[in-house]
Amino acid sequence: MSSKKNSPSKAKGPQKGGSSSSNNKNLLWIIAGIAIIVFIVVSAIVLSGQNKSQASSQVASLPMEISVSEAATKRDQGAFILDVRQPEEWNEYHIPGSTLIPLGDLPNRLNEVPKDKEVVVVCRSGNRSQEGRNILLNNGFSSVTSMSGGLKAWAAEGFETVSGP
Fold it and tell me: Within a 10 A sphere around the Cβ of 139, how many other Cβ atoms?
């Protein structure tokens, strides 16, 4: 005699395994979608940062120090000439079109120096101009250089100077 055991019917109701598998697939698609979105956003941020650093490296291409003749060329091309000497030195003689901001005042007068132009810092012999250049570079100015030899060298090479306030 054969005995039949009552076994649950496979056709009754939804099976847990099938719906769990479907939910797992959906979850995997959601995770993959999020990962793709995160990848795109991170890539856009990285590329944007590279474009900014390429642009600022183009602006920051000035050497730390340039010659008198290079400074004269930059001035003729529209560079901002910043004289960091004292007013009495300025009155004696200075480069036409230059701006006087004594070195000691420079940290408090940074807003008077344009960030959208090349800046050539000058002084009497070239020492204070290096300090002025470094102050500007340390405060976010990227297109700054100093003139070697200072106004002594400028005058000695025959470049024009003017006197008075």
Answer: 13
Distance between CA atoms of 85 and 66, rounded to whole angstroms? 18
H/E run at residue 43: helix 16-59
- Of 66, 81, 123, 147, which one is the catalytic site residue? 123
Q: Calculate the CA dihedral of residues 68, 69, 70, 76 and round it to 10 degrees.
A: 110
Residue 91 near residue 163 (C-beta atoms within 8 A): yes
Cβ neighbours of residue 145 closer than 8 Å, sequence gap 6 or more:
62, 63, 64, 65, 66, 74, 118, 119, 120, 121, 133
Q: Which two tokens stand for residue 135?
A: 């102050």
Two tokens, residue 117: 């132009």
Distance CA 42, CA 45 (A): 5
> Is 152 noted as a catalytic residue in this protein?
no
Q: What is the pLDDT of residue 134?
A: 92
**Residue 83 to residue 95: CA distance in whole angstroms:** 8
Residue 44 confidence (pLDDT)? 73
Residue 84 pLDDT: 95
The span from the CA of 3 to the CA of 127, in Å, is: 109
Q: 121 forms bridges with which residues in the sheet?
A: 82, 146
